[in-house]
Write a structure and sequence with these properties.
Shape: elongated
Radius of gyration: 30 Å
Strand content: 15-25%
Number of domains: 3
Structural class: alpha/beta
Number of helices: 10
CATH architecture of the largest domain: 3-Layer(aba) Sandwich
Number of strands: 12
Order of helices and strands: HHHEEHEHEHEEEHEHEHEEEH
């Protein structure tokens, strides 16, 4: 049966119901030779004679009658499967698995999850956090329906060609300084002022490349003192007076876990802000649940992108 296709069964049904290869071909909008070959291949695969060929057309053998019955059952079952899958994809119930870039998750996801679960209580929503690379892998292996990721664009694209991104929010870069830093009194800061200072680089890929690209664009060399993949570690080191940093996401609390304060300032220049978006596999039809989650992101985050 591994050599029997659903298409061959559909040709069998058409031939049995019309009584000839010619009429079946006309119904299926195919050539007579294509239908005739498919029926012969089906008989060979089943190792039985399904039809008796005669000058006026086709007649089913006794075995062929049973094959027709089974074929109709199988084709109907496949149609039921299609309908079931279609109904599932159109329903605002069922499972929805969402991933989120780790630094975005605690800042963006809580409000979206709270609003989404309130508006769509029948959806079984689950989420995971991780790096761009890991979340893209999970999109490809089917364990995630969506992933909230940054769209980095600084000479190289970090959303792969087999993925599509729907922008839900955009965030400009900013500078984070120790509360008593010599530059903290300024209303905004330029990279030329910052470059000699020790930099605490947020280096969770591809974040480090993104922030370093600012310096490259202005032919400056940053003084990288420490690298960390932890958003909160960046804030803690800055609050301790060990350097400055550049970040994208903001919180409402300008204080480290240790209770030490820091300040934030705008970064002057035409540096690209970061778009964050809901990413999914290209060519995959999104379920209504996934579309509703994307819409909720835009509503909850105040962005109509």
């Amino acid at each position: 049966m591994s050599n029997v296709s659903l298409r061959q069964l559909e040709y069998l049904i058409a031939a049995a119901e019309t009584g000839s290869v010619t009429a079946a071909a006309a119904r299926l909008y195919l050539s007579q030779s294509a239908v005739s070959t498919a029926l012969s291949d089906l008989e060979e695969a089943l190792d039985v004679q399904v039809f008796i060929r005669h000058p006026r057309g086709l007649a089913l053998t006794n075995v062929g009658q049973q094959v027709l019955t089974d074929a109709r059952r199988l084709v109907a079952g496949m149609e039921d499967l299609r309908n079931s899958a279609r109904e599932s994809s159109e329903s605002l119930s069922g499972k929805l698995a969402v991933g989120c870039y780790s630094t975005l998750a605690p800042i963006l996801l809580p409000r979206v999850i709270a609003d989404f679960t309130k508006n769509h209580p029948d959806v079984d929503l689950n989420f995971v956090e991780g790096s761009h690379t890991r979340l893209e892998e999970q999109l490809r292996d089917g364990s995630l329906d969506l992933a909230i990721l940054y769209e980095y664009d600084f000479g190289q694209r970090h959303i792969a060609k087999d993925l599509a991104l729907n922008v839900v929010v955009s965030t400009p870069p900013y500078v984070i300084l120790p509360e008593r830093h010599e530059l903290a009194s300024r209303e905004n800061l330029a990279l030329a002022d910052l470059a000699p200072q020790p930099l605490i680089l947020f280096d969770l890929p591809p974040g480090g490349d993104y922030f370093l690209s600012f310096f490259g664009a202005e032919n400056l060399t940053p003084n990288v003192r420490f690298r960390t993949t932890s958003f909160e570690m960046v804030r803690a080191l800055v609050a301790r007076g060990l350097g400055y940093s550049i970040l994208s996401q903001r919180t409402n609390i300008n204080m480290s876990y240790e209770g030490l304060a820091f300040v934030t300032r705008p970064l002057t220049g035409t540096f690209p802000g970061l778009n964050a978006g809901a990413v999914h596999l290209n060519g995959v039809r999104l379920t209504r649940r996934a579309v509703a989650f994307i819409d909720q992101c835009r509503t909850s985050l105040g962005t109509r992108a």
